[in-house]
Amino acid sequence: MHEVRTNELDSSSAPTTPAVHYLNATHGAASWFFTKDHKRIALLYLYSVSTFFLVGGIFAMLVRLELATPRGDLLSAETYNKVFTAHGVVMVFFFLIPAIPAILGNFLVPLMIGAKDLAFPRINLASWYLYMTGGLFGVAVLVMGGVDTGWTFYTPYSTAASNSHVVLTALGAFVAGFSSIFTGLNFIVTIHTMRAPGMTWDRLPLFIWSHYATSLIMMLGTPVVAVTLMMVVLERTLRLGFFNPDLGGDPVLFQHLFWFYSHPAVYIMVLPGMGVISEIVAAFSRKPVFGYKMVAMASLGIALIGFLVWGHHMFTTSQSVLAAVTFSFLSFLVAIPSAIKVFNWTATLYRGSVLLDSPMLYAIGFIGLFTIGGLTGLFLAAIGLDIHVHDTYFVVAHFHYVMVGGTLLAYLGGLHYWWPKITGKLYSEPWAKTSAVIVFVGFNLTFFPQFVLGYMGMPRRYHAYPAEELSWQVLNVLSSAGASILAIGLFLPLIYLTYAAFRGRPAGPNPWGAYGLEWETTSPPPTANFEVTPIVTKPAYYYAPEEH
Amino acid sequence: MGGTFTLFPTQASTMAGRVDNLYFFMLAVTLFFSVVVAGLVVTLAVKYRRRKADDVGANIHGSTALEVIWTAIPLLIAMVMFVWGTSVYFALAKPPAEAMEVYIVGKRWMWKAQHLTGHREINQLHVPVGTPVKLLISSEDVIHAYYIPAFRQKIDAVPGKTTTMWFEASKAGTYQLFCAEYCGTQHSGMIGKVVAMEPREFQQWLSGGAPAGTLTSSGEQEFAMLGCVTCHRDDGSGRAPSLVGVFGKPQRMANGTTVIADESYLRESILNPQAKVVQGYQPLMPAYQGQISEDNLVTLLAYIKSLEKPAAKGAPATDESAAPAGRQ
């Protein structure tokens, strides 16, 4: 029993679930597979993205098990290379990129702006089918024996040397890419044209701002990686000389094209996460987000500068000194809007009414991990230091802190925050808090030793490492142990959230006492989202209007 | 090495300390801000915890002054890091002019080193302590990266290019050499040792082997064998430009542009001569792409480079007197 929940504005009557809502409005498989309801499509994504996360997680555990000893004794070198490639491809293209936008974004963007649906419901459904088609390509690759290029597909290894299923994998990522282009397009048009009366740009929730910025990157960046992957396919099959010097190409050109998308893709993953954190911090402090405008503009700033920093992935490829210095400078600049956000979230707590329920625990965990992830990014932006740590475990640790610590914790926080809205049911808060703590501890134990390992010089993507480096094994064992704890922390929500969806107590429209249009409709919402179109008369996060 | 347990890598080059100093500075900044943020979050969350279920927070929307301050301070610190990191990079990127040269070829899955004296080694590199060493690195197949953690140095070996890296070992010892760019099945087996030796021992090591000929003499033979001499005559009377004194100098191209004849230009001109033709000459030279191994290409480059300084021709760049003299 939670004192806050039973003591809401309508504490006189226990919350109930509406008789008809989007989940039970129609029945049968066809009503799901041909649905145009953004909320049902969000659930289709939830099931499929979660499945891919499980698959990617199993590969992660195999990697960590292999590295617990210096000798390659669990997997062969070839298998290990395929395992870390599968882990990377699945996690990046099929979990991290779609997780928040396709699940939470799909569910919430129309609800939060007071719209009945997204602008293009059929394209939204088509996006899911594209995602699934890309995923099936990926499954086919795994069944046929895998791919060993790493998720980065570096040429000429991918075009001339690898004997694995590069073409099929690239096609899978290509198709899945269109799913994210369509999602981005849909969000942008929806946010521009379907806001409820009174929902002006300066009243948009920060979740919407972050999805708007993300959608820009999705639409502008994803086509570039799609074209690049096609070039890999063409060079591999028809020997067109784009990247292979034997055919007159330039191997570094691939890296430019690839990172032109794939660096902004990091922001595709983490910007929506920042949106989630802004919502949670406001709701659990019952306060407006400190410096709303700066946080909104910082999202756009990150999206724009994020397109100008790809060259920092290539400091050791002998790019020109001027290019290296320029990319270093721009990479430092992109840290500023991120710093602004961290300080603003922290300042939001000041004189708040702070409740440390599970979504807030995830949000605070996010702030901690993202701070470390962001600051260690500066080590890589400083060229003189990047030369040493580039392509070592330092980089692995850094991007896991940002992409996994950031994106995953925000995703879990968001899932917990909006689970009562999605399912209409409350989950067990003690279990949720426990899992949040286990995830945080397990995560740090997994990835913190990798910073040390990287500075010691252990290169990434190593199937075995020199046994004489005693500290390397100690650090790797710690990391592998942490991964097991993290796995437990991630497995728990699967159980208690699923259980809650069927057996949980009714949540009522607004179990958190949060402000925002999504909390003004029933839980779960009706198919049309709102009984009557809401009219917005107040700014976002209108929690404490009496003071000034 | 020797199996000692440590959580910090050995410093064994003149640059290692500079890189580590920057590292410690950034570590301090990271620790400071992590502690500040964590401390503030915990303190505020406890101090302003919700006491009654319907409590709301204060209606604070922001503070321009605070936001300017916490934009300006990180920007300032970031710029310090940028300038510091860039200055370290300049030192890491620019080899001293008198550096001793060694050619490295990466191939799946081994590192091959060729000294100017003709000494060749696989997965090993012997260098003298106290002498700047410049590595000219290429790859025969895919991208590799030559990485010596104890020296804090790394550069990609990119097929179709010659990249350079330099270091000056400051402490005798044996250090790990890794391939840091994923290159396929045996990527983690593409490792070796860099042996930094006192100059005297290095000389002994050099005299211990029995090289077939110096790198430049092998290059000279290759140059003759491929028939290059028939056109590239030393006195400039051939159908192709003389190569004496060409290396490192600007050359005027047929299309009016000027190109510095560095390693990558020479490499390109051997493999794909039509790409940039020197002004006043016909594009007659055949392409050697696929006709010449990376090892032989290295000897040709070494030979052509030696043509600018006749004194160095055939002589080891690091004889007893040259190494210490180069340091002054």
The global form of chain A is: globular
Q: Could you name the CATH homologous superfamily of the largest domain in chain B?
A: Cupredoxins -  blue copper proteins
* Strand arrangement in the largest pleated sheet of chain B: 3-2-1-5-8
Supply Rg of chain A.
23 Å
The helix/strand order of chain A is: HHHHHHHHHHHHHHEHHE
* Amino-to-carboxy terminus distance of chain B: 32 Å
Task: Describe it.
The complex is a heterodimer of chains A (548) and B (328). Chain A is mainly alpha-helical and 548 residues long. Chain A has helices spanning 3-6, 29-33, 38-66, 77-113, 121-144, 157-161, 166-193, 206-238, 251-285, 292-305, 321-349, 358-381, 383-389, 393-423, 429-456, 470-503, and strands at 425-426, 505-506. Chain A has a single domain, classed as Cytochrome C Oxidase, Chain A (Up-down Bundle). Chain A starts with a helix and ends in a 42-residue tail after the last strand. Residues 1-11 of chain A have low confidence and may be disordered. Chain B has 328 residues and is α+β, with helices and mostly antiparallel strands. Chain B has 7 helices and 12 strands. In chain B, strands 3-2-1-5-8 form a 5-stranded mixed β-sheet, covered by helices on one side. A 5-stranded mixed β-sheet of chain B has the order 4-10-9-6-7.
